[in-house]
């Protein structure tokens, strides 16, 4: 499960409702929630955040928490 999938599950978010509100297909949401190789686009993240009444920056921070800058 992806970080987005874990976030949505933790918040008990109904993906069918998110799909209806955002226009993102249920199959795309399933890919974004379950497949680590699927890339989440910025517009999708923004729409999902709006649909679940979350701050887009906080959602981004949560799902990208493992990203770190390289030390040079």
TrEMBL record:
<dbReference type="InterPro" id="IPR001387">
    <property type="entry name" value="Cro/C1-type_HTH"/>
</dbReference>
<feature type="domain" description="HTH cro/C1-type">
    <location>
        <begin position="7"/>
        <end position="61"/>
    </location>
</feature>
<dbReference type="InterPro" id="IPR010982">
    <property type="entry name" value="Lambda_DNA-bd_dom_sf"/>
</dbReference>
<dbReference type="Pfam" id="PF13443">
    <property type="entry name" value="HTH_26"/>
</dbReference>
<protein>
    <recommendedName>
        <fullName>HTH cro/C1-type domain-containing protein</fullName>
    </recommendedName>
</protein>
<dbReference type="GO" id="GO:0003677">
    <property type="term" value="F:DNA binding"/>
</dbReference>
